[in-house]
Fold this protein.
Amino acid sequence: MPEKSSIGSYFLGYLDLLINRLNYVIVFFCTLAVAAAGCILSWEATARYLFKIPSDWQDEVTIFLLVGSTFLSCAWVQQSRGHIGIQALSSILGPRANAARIFFGDLMSFLFCAFFSWKSWTLLLEALEDHQISGSAFGAPLWIPYSSMAIGTSLLSLVLFAQILNALFRPTVTH
């Protein structure tokens, strides 16, 4: 029978691999969404000023694309630790103190993001039940941006949870 640590290590390795692959796919589509938003805004400006063709959908679609790509890609940013960190502290703290700082930051972030995720899911369910739409002439359904918030913060919470588990059960060796 395998040891507990090897089972836990196997599980964490599988979880990390799953999250990594999922984030890779999501970030690919987020990149396409940002490019689409840029094309839509460019077309809108060109159509309005050169051809005198007004439209009422492009601002809302662009906002939905950018909000969606922001929330859905935040798990990838956290997984790669690409966010802005306090470099001054990491350079003056010892390895153990820095690991504790990162762990505490991950724990507090997880608690906040888990709460935010829960509230995003309730917002999404309300939008679906009440058939909520935006207040613009376009009248887009609000479940679209709410779903990206709920899925994105849930994935971010999962990444933070995995990082906490990795810190607890896969400690790095310091000299």
In short: The chain has five helices and no strands. Residues 4-49 form the longest helix (46 residues). Helices lie at 4-49, 58-79, 87-92, 95-130, 143-169. The chain has a mean pLDDT of 88.
